[in-house]
Amino acid sequence: MMTFNQLKKNLKKDVSGFKTIKVAVLADSASQFICDAIKGYGIHAQINFDIYEADYSQIDLQVFDPTSELYESKPDFVIINKCTEKLQKEFYKKDRAGKAHFAEYIQQTTRKYYETITSRMKAKVIVNTFLETTDGVFGNYAAKTDASFLYQVRKSNLFLMDLAQQLKDLFVCDLNAIQSEIGHVNAFDSKMYVSADMVYSLDFLPYIGQHVTQIIQAVTGTFKKCLILDLDNTTWGGIIGDDGVEGIQVGYLGLGKVFSELQTWAKQLKERGIILAVCSKNTEEIAKEPFQTHPDMVLRLEDIAIFVANWQTKVENIRHIQAVLNIGFDSMVFLDDNPFEREMVKTGIPDVTVPELPEDPSEYLSYVKSLNLFETASYTEEDETRTKQYQEEAQRNQFQMSFENENDFLGSLEMVSEVKAFDDFSIPRVAQLTQRSNQFNLRTIRYTEEDLKAMKKNDNYITMSLTLEDKFGNHGLIGIIILEKKDSNTLFVDSWIMSCRVLKRGMERFTLNTIVEKANALGFKKIVGEYIPTKKNGLVKNHYVDLGFVSEGEYWVLDVASFEPTLVHIDKK
Hints:
Layout: H1 4-10, E1 19-27, H2 32-44, E2 47-53, H3 59-64, H4 69-73, E3 77-81, H5 84-92, H6 96-100, H7 102-120, E4 124-128, H8 149-166, E5 170-173, H9 175-181, H10 190-196, H11 205-219, E6 226-229, H12 240-243, H13 256-272, E7 275-281, H14 284-293, E8 306-310, H15 314-325, E9 332-335, H16 339-348, H17 364-371, H18 386-400, H19 406-412, E10 415-417, E11 419-420, H20 427-436, H21 449-457, E12 461-470, E13 473-485, E14 490-498, H22 507-522, E15 526-530, H23 543-546, E16 550-552, E17 555-559, E18 570-572
C-alpha cells in the first residue's frame, strides 16, 4: 500500500489524459486529508476525481437544502463519511429507549440521505461502516444489553449492509472490515482528532482512498474478471515435476494449509463469477494430475476455465488465455511466487495486475486479500455459471480447428437466440451489462435497474434482450438493445451492447436484422446510431459502417426500406 505522502505527491501529476469523475465528499469531521487520499489514489488508478468538499460537519445542510453547493456541483458520486467518535456523542444524548433503537435511527437517517440525494440528481451514494470501539461503560456485558454503544455500533453496521441490499445505488465502504484485515494499522489517531478534528490516522487514509476508488471503478465498469494461477509453490507447495503428486504440500497439515486456504479462496471467487485460469511452466499431463488425483486438492479441473501448462513463456501463455477469454488484460490478475516470472509479465503485459507476493507463503492469502482486487458492484445468478461458459468456449475453439472455413463452422454450431423485451427476470443482468461492458458498447451509457424498469414502462422506448445458445452450451443473456422513438419516422439506438464472448458468431448482423424487422413492423423509416469513443471501445469504431449505415455528421443512418437482411446461422428461439 502506498503511504499518504506518496498519495499527496500524486496530486502534482498531470491528469489531463485521465477520465474525470465528479465526487462530493460530505463528512462530520475534518475531511481535507480524506479528499487528498481519494484523489491521490484515483490518480494512481488513472482517474481524475473532481472533488467538491463540503464545509466541516454540514451533511444535513448540504443534503436537505435543494439549493446547496452539493446539488450545484452535480457529482457522479456522493460520499457521506460519518465517524464513530461523532456517532458516540449522538448516542450519549439519547434516553434509554433512544439508545435501544439507535441503530434503527442510523438506518432511517441514511435512507433519508439516499432518497433525498437520488430524487434530486442522478448520483450514486457511498457511505461507510463505523469502526467498532468499546466505550468501557458496560465492559464485556456490552454484548448482553441493547443499551450499550458497542452493541448499537455493530447493529448499525449490519443495518447499513441490509440497506445497501435494498437500495441499488447505495454502496458501503466497509471501514470496519478494512481495519480488521489490516490490524497492524491503527485507524484512529487521537492526537489528530484532538488537534484538528481529523479522526483517521495518516496510515489508514490510503486504505480509504483505495477502497473508495475501487468501489467507483466497479460501478463505472472497471474491475477484475480473471485470476490466473501459477502452480508450483503458488497453488501448492513444492514442484510437481520433481516431488510427484504425493510429495507436494497441500491439505490442512503443516505448510499445506497455506495453499489449501488459498485454493479455497480462489474457489469462492470462481463461485462468485471470477474466471480461474492456470498458467504454468510444466508438462500438461503432470500439471493436471494433482487436480485429478490428489485427495486434498480443493480446486479441480472443472473449476479452471482455461488450463495452460507448457514450456513457453508466461507472457505468451497469458496472451493466449486473453485471446480465448476475449477480455481486457487490465481485468486479469496473475499470481506467481517467482519474482523473475512476475517481472517478465509486468514488463511484457503492463496492464495485467501482478501482486508482489511475500516471500513467506503463509502471508500470501492475507496479502492478496488486503489488495481488494476483486471489488464488484453487482452479482447475479448467471455469474456462477461463468466458468462453465468459458470451458464451453474452449471446446468451440478446438472444434473450429476441424473446419476449413468459418462459414461451415458457424453452420455446424446449431445456434439459436431468444429475443424479448426487458422483464423483471432479465433486468438485473441487463443492468449489469450496461455497468460492466466496455468493449462492445457503442455509447457506454450506464443504467441502473430502476432506470431500466422506467424504460420498460415508457412507450418511447423499445427494449430487447438477446440470448445465444448452441450445441456446446448456453451463453445466456449476451446482448441488449435500447431504441428510442425520436419521431414517427426515426428510431435512435440509445444502447447496443454485446458480450465479447460471442464475437464472430454473426450475432451483430442477427441483431440488426431483428432491429429492422421491429422498425418495419412499427412503421419507422430510418434507424440512427451513434458511436461515442472511449479508451476501451475501439473494437466497435467501424460497427455502423460495416453494417451498411451511412454517415450523417456525428450520426450513422440506415434506411429501413432499402435494407437487405443478412444471412446468418442463428435461428430465433
